[in-house]
Amino acid sequence: MSTKRSEFLKGIKAELPILLGVIPFGFIYGVSARGAGIPPFAAQAMSFIVFGGSAQFVIVQLIGAGVPAGIIILTAAIINLRHALYSASLAPYLKRLQRRWQMFLAYLLTDEAYAVVITHYQQPGDATKKHWYFLGAGLTLWSTWQVSTAVGIILGAEVPASWSLDFTLPLTFIAIVVPTLKERAGVATAATAGIVAVLAAGLPFRLGLVVATLIGISIGMCLEPRDNKHVNTHKGEEQNVVQELSPIEQIELSPERPVRKDKV
Amino acid sequence: MTPLILWLTLLCIGIITFAIRVSFITFFGKREMPSFLLRTLRFVPIAVLSAIIFPALFLYGNRLDLSLSNSRLLAGILAAFVAWRTKSVLLTIVVGMVGLWLLQALVK
């Protein structure tokens, strides 16, 4: 018999291995935010308001490059669109909760939280208190992210540029993307988006990122097999959503590799 | 960027991100998710992340650098190999950073 307390503690425990990757990532975010000239308080507020590692990194880069606000907002929105998939996938499990629970858990919904929470929901057993597990996992990640970004922001000015710590950003993304490139459409998407981004680097306002993303997605959709069925999020249909997640999300769900040690 | 614009930008991004996360959980949970949207979303992370990775490796300043003195490109290729073989995020970052530092020391 699972209690609220035991579910909460299990959620915390499940998240612990992931923190190993989250802590350096948060630290480096803080360092690069200071490097881009963002005031310390605003840099920390971004961890609170946005709470999404990869988006925060890109926002910092764009602010540092003097890109106009509208394009920063557009770019961040595109980067965070993937969370709609997580939202759709978890919706059937959370529909009986009070709205304030749903909203708070949605705020805590990141790549890392999703990875452990969906695995837990898919296991058999009493599901009535599993939102406490979600809360435990989400709050663990949230507090770790806040503290590690704060440490990076405080120590940011002390880290010399010659250490090239900014290079951990592309390295983290390489670690996320490369293992997911198994099918033709995915490889073509990655190659197209990457090459277009290099060629379009001269575009004003760093629009190259948005242009490259849109062209990459189009190529992927042209090349993927056409047998996808219509997917909905009605009760009992959540398995469809999970099965049709991108290779990146499937990795998160695989039992051999239930946790990812990367971005928040 | 003025402080006011910076704060408004952060606030907008926060609201949009929250709206995306809460979308199906609270509001569209009973609606069908159009397959077109779902297919598009599948490729978003791969496209976005690749569009960030490639320029970080291939460009020096704003110019294409395919020479052997481009330490970031070589370290990135090494890291991609490690990511492919081990699937470990931590190992990929460690090998990539150590590789970059060694190559930078060699180039000097």
SSE string of chain A, helices as H and strands as E: HHHHHHHHHHHEHH
Oligomer: heterodimer
What percentage of the residues of chain B does DSSP assign to strands (E)? 5-15%
Total of DSSP H or I helical runs spanning 4+ residues of chain A? 13
Q: Major sheet of chain A, described briefly?
A: none
- The neighbouring-strand order within the major sheet of chain B is 2-3
Pair of chains with the largest interface and how many residues each contributes: A-B, 104 and 73 residues
State the end-to-end CA separation of chain A: 31 Å
The chain-level structural class of chain A is: mainly alpha
Secondary structure: helix percent of chain B: over 70%
Give the helices and strands of chain B as they follow along the chain: HEHEEHH
Question: Spans of chain B of 5+ residues with little confidence (pLDDT < 50)?
Answer: none
Number of strand segments of chain B: 3
Count, helices of chain B? 4
**Shape verdict of chain A:** globular
**Cα gyration radius of chain A (Å):** 19 Å
Write structural notes for this entry:
- The complex is a heterodimer of chains A (264) and B (108).
- Chain A has 264 residues and is mostly helical.
- Chain A contains 13 helices and 1 strand; from the N terminus they run H-H-H-H-H-H-H-H-H-H-H-E-H-H.
- Chain A has helices at residues 4-35, 40-49, 53-64, 69-80, 83-94, 99-107, 111-122, 130-155, 168-177, 184-199, 208-223, 238-243, 247-253; one strand spanning 231-232.
- In chain A, helix 1 packs antiparallel against helix 7 (111-122).
- The longest helix of chain A has 32 residues, at 4-35.
- Residues 228-264 of chain A have low confidence and may be disordered.
- With 108 residues, chain B is mainly alpha-helical.
- Chain B has 4 helices and 3 strands.
- Chain B has helices at residues 3-27, 35-58, 71-86, 89-107, and strands spanning 32-33, 59-60, 63-64.
- In chain B, strands 2-3 form a two-stranded antiparallel sheet.
- In chain B, helix 3 (71-86) runs antiparallel to helix 4.
- The two termini of chain B are 36 Å apart.
- The model of chain B has no long low-confidence stretch (mean pLDDT 89).
- At the A-B interface, helix 1, helix 2, helix 3, helix 4 and helix 5 of A face helix 1, strand 1, helix 2, helix 3 and helix 4 of B.
